[in-house]
């Protein structure tokens, strides 16, 4: 009965909280979370079911081109303020151990992992929250200085997998086991296993539960594939600038409408071309074509919401493919992405 009341209480303020963060109204957002806490809603439910779920909706509204990047950023900042208000109401003396919580280098989506940090504090951990985009050497220095029992590492975008791999390897070399989380580690966290993480959790609650029992996990050897950092991956990474520049130079011939683009549109197109190369690189790194096809599915939807036709995206993929004549795996991955544009889900 309590869970039903709690779920109902959170659900009843969903739209009000979304409106508050959408307006950047931190006072209204904080008032909403205080109201839920005063009514007896557990802090964990406020963080996960209200703040976390609202942040997912914020991302969906940006993807659908209903919210601008600036509004999305303002909403995230407001959600962080609300999360801080929840955290300020909950104090638990550490009794489990010490844990470092961080985003991998280049990963800037810090709110989900900050929710994890606060939930771990409430579960009795002493938490060092390092925030977004933590360079590997700085992370390792911190581990040597503090000697934590675990590292919780977040990766939301698969293009960060090579850096996540470096961080996991460094943490394990320092004798600290790693629990990984975030969409960047793939369905069921299978890429986390590829790069040697000791454990993976689908969400903050699962991570808290996993860390509370049988930690650290038994030591095991990373189940690395033969493709981590192979020749094709190395070539694509090193050739990234020329792949993008050449594709942009040839785009007008392949897709004449680009000649009418203004400077902002051309910059956005070059950025999208960079994403194509980066997701191709990530797919090559762990030999997982799905990384690239998922990227194609998502990007096609985002571009369509911005009235960019699939033929324009297809032209960009073709132009990158044409430059990789001798790289059969990379071309096969691009072919799989191109096929998704022809036969969308």
TrEMBL record:
It holds the Pfam family B12-binding_2. GO terms for biological process: homocysteine metabolic process; tetrahydrofolate metabolic process. Residues 96-222 form the B12-binding domain. Signal peptide: none annotated. InterPro entries: Cbl-bd_cap, Cobalamin-bd, Cobalamin-bd_sf, Met_Synthase/Corrinoid, Meth_synthase_dom. Keywords: Cobalt, Metal-binding. Transmembrane segments: none annotated. One of its GO terms (molecular function) is methionine synthase activity. GO terms for cellular component: cytosol. It comes from the Bacteria. This is Cobalamin-binding protein.
């Amino acid at each position: 009965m309590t869970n039903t009341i709690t779920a109902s209480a959170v659900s009843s303020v969903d739209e009000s909280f979304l409106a508050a963060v959408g307006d950047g109204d931190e006072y209204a957002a904080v008032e909403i979370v205080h109201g839920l806490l005063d009514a007896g809603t557990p802090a964990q439910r406020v963080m996960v079911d209200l703040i976390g779920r609202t942040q997912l909706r914020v991302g969906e509204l940006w993807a659908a081109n209903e919210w601008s990047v600036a509004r999305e950023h303002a909403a995230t900042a407001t959600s962080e303020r609300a999360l801080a208000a929840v955290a300020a109401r909950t104090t638990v003396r550490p009794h489990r151990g010490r844990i470092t919580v961080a985003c991998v280098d280049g990963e800037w989506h810090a709110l989900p992992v900050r929710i994890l940090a606060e939930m771990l504090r409430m579960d009795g951990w002493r938490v060092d929250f390092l925030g977004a985009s933590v360079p590997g050497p700085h992370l390792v220095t911190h581990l040597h200085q503090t000697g934590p029992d675990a590292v919780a590492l977040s990766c939301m975008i698969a293009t960060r997998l090579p850096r996540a791999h470096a961080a996991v390897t460094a943490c394990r070399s320092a004798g600290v086991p790693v629990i990984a989380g975030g969409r960047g580690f793939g369905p069921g966290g299978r890429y986390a296993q590829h790069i040697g993480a000791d454990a993976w959790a689908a969400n903050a609650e699962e991570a808290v539960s996993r860390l509370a029992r049988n930690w650290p996990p038994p030591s095991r050897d990373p189940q690395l594939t033969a493709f981590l950092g192979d020749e094709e991956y190395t070539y694509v990474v090193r050739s990234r600038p020329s792949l993008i520049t050449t594709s942009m130079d040839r785009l007008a011939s392949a897709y004449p409408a680009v000649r009418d683009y203004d400077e902002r549109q051309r910059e956005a197109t070059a950025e999208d071309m960079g994403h194509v190369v980066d997701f191709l690189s990530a797919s090559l790194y762990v030999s997982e074509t799905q990384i690239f096809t998922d990227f194609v599915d998502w990007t096609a939807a985002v571009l369509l919401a911005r009235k960019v036709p699939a033929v324009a995206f297809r032209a960009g993929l073709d132009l990158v493919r044409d430059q990789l004549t001798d790289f059969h795996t990379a071309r096969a991955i691009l072919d799989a992405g191109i096929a998704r544009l022809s036969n969308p889900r």
